[in-house]
UniProtKB/TrEMBL annotation:
<protein>
    <recommendedName>
        <fullName>ABC transporter domain-containing protein</fullName>
    </recommendedName>
</protein>
<feature type="domain" description="ABC transporter">
    <location>
        <begin position="439"/>
        <end position="691"/>
    </location>
</feature>
<keyword id="KW-0813">Transport</keyword>
<dbReference type="Pfam" id="PF00005">
    <property type="entry name" value="ABC_tran"/>
</dbReference>
<keyword id="KW-0067">ATP-binding</keyword>
<dbReference type="InterPro" id="IPR003593">
    <property type="entry name" value="AAA+_ATPase"/>
</dbReference>
<comment type="similarity">
    <text>Belongs to the ABC transporter superfamily.</text>
</comment>
<dbReference type="InterPro" id="IPR017871">
    <property type="entry name" value="ABC_transporter-like_CS"/>
</dbReference>
<dbReference type="Pfam" id="PF08352">
    <property type="entry name" value="oligo_HPY"/>
</dbReference>
<feature type="domain" description="ABC transporter">
    <location>
        <begin position="20"/>
        <end position="268"/>
    </location>
</feature>
<dbReference type="InterPro" id="IPR027417">
    <property type="entry name" value="P-loop_NTPase"/>
</dbReference>
<dbReference type="InterPro" id="IPR050319">
    <property type="entry name" value="ABC_transp_ATP-bind"/>
</dbReference>
<keyword id="KW-0547">Nucleotide-binding</keyword>
<dbReference type="InterPro" id="IPR013563">
    <property type="entry name" value="Oligopep_ABC_C"/>
</dbReference>
<dbReference type="InterPro" id="IPR003439">
    <property type="entry name" value="ABC_transporter-like_ATP-bd"/>
</dbReference>
């Protein structure tokens, strides 16, 4: 049976002869006159050849544990107590020279942010060779040969050894980091989110490599991850951390199927899978302290970390004569009431086009009628019941013009809950995605290189995009999927006006925008209607600017607003994305990764764009924060009528979030179509391979 552990407890079934032993580890950070404890009395053992998964939300202390084991914390600002031993050698309190001798040789780490961890001034092969030569004493030729071997093992051609980090995609940079960590065959490998930026096929390749290393040399792996799917297929045991405390541990298969702690169950439920009903709101883990009681519904509900739709936020709960008790978090939802003007009367198309369009372009939606609270994942929408829709629910309110009766409905793609019945209601014209493309690329080609160098030689061109044609309709979400290096981000940057196409046509709302990347005036005009949400929430925000300055920059460029009006708009945007407007004066480093991503979304929304290009917006986030951001994007898409180009390598997220899907490989689109068609009956062999790898 899975055990539940409190602070200071040791995980069940520890190995008798551990290669890594952690006892009563506590890590505290000091700054601005206060001390914050990130890890509280953590203890565990890691045996030779074992893979131990360390799981938890952003800010739970996972990476802090990994850095402490490597001896990488700044002694001037960090207090580390307890014991960490590698093969019997103590890390805590050891001289720097002793720790450096261990680091890289007997214990190594794969860092989450590969771009920041790699030197931009040296070829990747030289960096791998240096790590090998320092600890082995090998010569230059042996170092180059070892670097080529390791690159090949992680799926990168040895011919790329002379390339620099900026010449690789995000996923390929992560593979370089893994090669560098494994080059000395260490006894312990700490892998901090090693597959976060990787697509399903490369992720499987990297995890297979870790398994091979474990079998060949007995390397022990501490796998720090938020992906419970990775834990399920890789780890022997699993530790779950929350706010610096160990809350549960045990065999991985036991915890994933029979978790006892509500927080563990919430983390498992927050990640969408290929079986998740598309379009429903994802549960969010309750972000209270470790000693607090579980949130409503077994740890899933409206807690400190959850996002509540602006349409219902702050609405007082209905009394006993209305819809029943308030939902978790004190937000009520009266089934007989109508939403605010932001969504009132707005028809909602069912995700994925569950049925044929009605006369006049209306879209049928599933409506469940009841006087109680909407089921989980539903949102109350005001819809006028048509003739024959049934009697008006008691207390539903006055009749509308024309004799229509307002009823409380919940819109979803899943089956109606008990006590509800499905009624065919025609949404007004214009509810669904526009058949005409708001933005499109036609026969797009993009090449890099092919220019004369300083030495008079012409570099070989790289064809990143080859003959791609895509369309994003008004109010539509198009998912662009494919492996790392397939050309997804390049295509997205062209559509956003940041990359000049080599050939082909790029249009937005009928205008040719192909020269936006080199035409400053056209780019400025386009940026008001097309905004980006970048993959890296850390690198995409200026660390020297406050949140107010970051969010209001588009307003200064595109509007004549005064300073007070801009500040009011920034406060409104922060509230819209679920952040406290009082934090406008803070800087990016004072926020978590998920909060920074929401700041990026607020900045993108500032000029009220019609299209948002989201380039891997949730790939760097843990499952609970990912659920928050996806729920937020769905709310904003519905409330503001946004169109989105959603770039991702996560097939489960794309299936959950997008209306249509285009699959890219080696710069070309191999398949595209409605979501259910692509995922349910894929035509291309490559699409089938991606789906098989994701299962």
């Amino acid at each position: 049976m899975t055990e539940v552990f409190g602070p200071g407890a040791v995980s069940g079934g520890p190995p008798s002869d551990p290669v890594l032993r952690v006892r009563d580890l506590a890590v505290s950070f000091t700054g601005r006159g206060r001390t914050v404890t990130a890890v509280h009395g953590l203890s565990f053992d890691l045996a030779r050849g074992e893979v131990l998964g360390l799981v938890g939300e952003s800010g739970s202390g996972k990476s802090t544990v990994g850095l402490a084991a490597m001896g990488l914390h700044d002694a001037a600002r960090t207090r580390v107590s307890g014991s960490i031993s590698v093969g019997g050698t103590e890390i805590v309190g050891a001289p720097d020279s002793a720790v450096r001798a261990l680091r890289g040789a007997r214990i190594a780490m794969v860092f989450q942010d590969a771009l920041a961890a790699l030197s931009p001034f040296h070829p990747v092969g030289a960096q791998i060779a240096e790590a090998y030569r320092i600890h082995s004493g090998a010569g230059r030729a042996a170092g180059r040969a070892r670097a080529a071997e390791m690159l090949d093992r992680v799926g990168i051609p040895a011919t790329r050894a002379r390339d620099y980090p900026h010449q690789f995609s995000g996923g390929m940079r992560q593979r370089v980091m893994i090669a560098m960590a494994l080059v000395n065959a260490p006894d312990v490998l700490i892998a901090d989110e090693p597959t976060t930026a990787l697509d399903a096929r490369v992720q499987r390749q990297v995890l297979s490599l870790l398994a091979e290393l474990r079998e060949e040399s007995g390397t022990a792996v501490l796998l720090i991850t938020h992906d419970v799917g990775v834990v399920a297929g890789t780890c022997d045991r699993m530790l779950v951390m929350r706010n610096g405390h160990l809350v549960e541990s045990g065999p991985a298969d036991t915890l994933l199927t029979n978790a006892q702690h509500p927080y563990t169950r919430a983390l498992i439920d927050a990640a969408p899978t290929l079986e998740t009903v598309p379009g429903v709101r994802l549960p969010v883990a309750f972000a209270a302290g470790p000693d607090d009681g579980p949130a409503a519904g077994g740890g899933v509900g409206c807690g400190a970390g959850s996002l509540v739709s602006a349409a219902t936020a702050g609405r007082p709960a209905a009394d006993a004569g209305g819809a029943g008790p308030a939902a978790a978090g004190g937000v009520g939802c009266d089934a007989g009431s109508l939403l605010s003007a932001a969504t009132a009367g707005r028809p909602t198309a069912d995700a994925g086009g569950a049925g044929p369009a009605l006369a006049g372009g209306a879209v049928p939606v599933a409506v469940s009628v009841d006087t109680g609270l909407p089921p989980a994942g539903h949102r109350a929408l005001p819809v006028a019941a048509g003739k024959g829709a049934g009697p008006s629910p008691a207390g539903a309110g006055p009749a509308l013009a024309g004799g229509a009766v307002p009823v409380a409905v919940s819109v979803d793609t899943g089956p109606p809950s008990a006590g509800h019945r499905v009624l065919p209601v025609a949404a007004a014209k214009g509810a669904g995605p526009s058949p005409a493309g708001l933005a499109e690329v036609i026969d797009l080609h993009v090449e890099f290189g092919g220019r004369r160098t300083l030495w008079g030689r012409r570099s070989r061109p790289v064809r990143a995009v080859r003959g791609v044609s895509l369309r994003v309709g008004a109010g539509e979400t198009l998912g662009l999927v494919g492996e790392s290096g397939s050309g997804k981000s390049t295509t997205a940057r062209v559509l956003a006006g940041l990359q000049r196409p080599t050939a082909g046509s790029v249009r937005f709302d009928g205008r040719d925008i192909g020269r936006a990347a080199v035409d400053t005036r056209l780019r400025r005009e386009l940026s008001r209607e097309v905004q980006l949400v970048f993959q890296d929430p850390y690198a995409s925000l200026n660390p020297r600017r406050t949140v107010e300055e970051i969010v209001t920059t588009p307003l200064r460029v595109h509007t004549g607003m005064g300073a007070a009006a801009r500040r009011d708009r920034a406060a409104e945007l922060l509230g819209q994305v679920g952040l406290d407007p009082a934090h406008l004066s803070r800087y990016p480093h004072e926020f978590s990764g998920g909060q920074r991503q929401r700041i990026g979304i607020a900045r993108a929304l500032a000029p009220r764009p019609r299209l948002i290009v989201a380039d891997e917006p949730v790939s760097a986030l843990d499952v609970s924060v990912q659920a928050q951001v996806l729920n937020l994007l769905m709310d904003l898409r519905d409330e503001l009528g946004l169109s989105l180009l959603f770039v991702s390598h996560d097939l489960a997220v794309v299936r959950h979030f997008c209306d249509r899907v285009a699959v890219m490989r080696a710069g070309t689109v191999v398949e595209s179509g409605p979501r259910d068609e692509v995922f349910g009956d894929p035509k291309a062999d490559y699409t089938r391979e991606l789906l098989a790898a994701a299962l």
